[in-house]
Amino acid sequence: MSAPSSHIPVLLEEVVDALRPAPGETHVDGTFGGGGYTRAILDRGAARVFAFDRDPDAIQYGEALAATCGGRLTLVPERFSRMRQALAARGVDEADGVTLDIGVSSMQLNAAERGFSFQGDGPLDMRMGKEGESAADFLNNAGEDEIADVLFHYGEEPKSRRVARAIVAARPIERTGQLADVVRKALGHHPGMKKDPATRTFQAIRIHVNEELTELEGGLAAAEQVLSEGGRLAIVTFHSLEDRIVKRFLKARSGSLPSGSRHLPAANEAGPAPTFDSVAKAVRPGAAELSANPRARSATLRAARRTSAPSWPPLQEGAAR
Ligand SMILES: C[S@@+](CC[C@H](N)C(=O)[O-])C[C@H]1O[C@@H](n2cnc3c(N)ncnc32)[C@H](O)[C@@H]1O
User: Fold this and answer.
1) In which residue ranges of the chain is pLDDT below 50?
2) Which of 60, 67, 210, 212 has the fewest CB atoms within 10 Å, measured from its CB?
3) Whose C-alpha lies nearest to ligand 1, atom 24?
4) Probe ligand 1: pick from 61, 126, 128, max atoms within 8 Å of CB?
5) Is residue 62 within 8 Å of residue 32, measured between CB atoms?
């Protein structure tokens, strides 16, 4: 396996400021990737970091860092939605900070053989965890309506039906280059277009194959469960679908959904107590970061602090949507 090309951590200072790691503390990095956040949390003096990644390659690359940390870094090859169980299995039931940096790393995007990108041709895979249904499995077996729904909901592709029809007509599709050509032909493409028309389709299929939005909801609920009183949560997202989930979760859990919301109990009904406070305003990258790292373009950081209230029961999950 070749060495990974590096991933520039996004909003790094802002994330670490929000987490405020301190000596003696235990932190969870739910998305280890290239280890940028983990390194910074350790540098700021946290006693221990449990770093999750569902991608076995990321965990393998992380072993070199773990070997230099004298037992302070534990790599966990798991989905972050299973954070509570994975920590409990390691004898840990509370953390002082949890961070998630949603999406794919530059290493994943740049490796043509992982099939995430149409910049280089590769097999149509897109599985972060290298297991389950691949992008090719999905596109070659799903019905046209199902494909159109995925493109519409996860890619916000306005011409989802047209693209789905073209995909079904071109099956079997096995390569990223082939899929990109099918989409470009269906939507029209000319050199000099600001955004490649295949971008939305690739995003949608990646989100679907990796169940990314369900994972994010599960990760937020798991963070609520593992954070101790006063613990800090910092979440970085890269598009509006994800940011909406985080924003609504924090609004609901801090008791500030707008009045009249059908999700809130009537004023005289006691609802669950807020589990988060100090919800910070959304933070976006500044000009210096954007010029150094264009990939930070659509990043949004949201952060909050855990209260002492018990976690909301699973039944309340719908309130976060
Ligand atoms: C944007 S990168 C993180 C980069 C990292 N913050 C850094 O500074 O290098 C996202 C990483 O999260 C992993 N990932 C995405 N969804 C995950 C999930 N549900 N559970 C665990 N890891 C996940 C991906 O495999 C990828 O390596």
Assistant:
1) 1-3, 259-260, 317-321
2) 67
3) 104
4) 128
5) yes
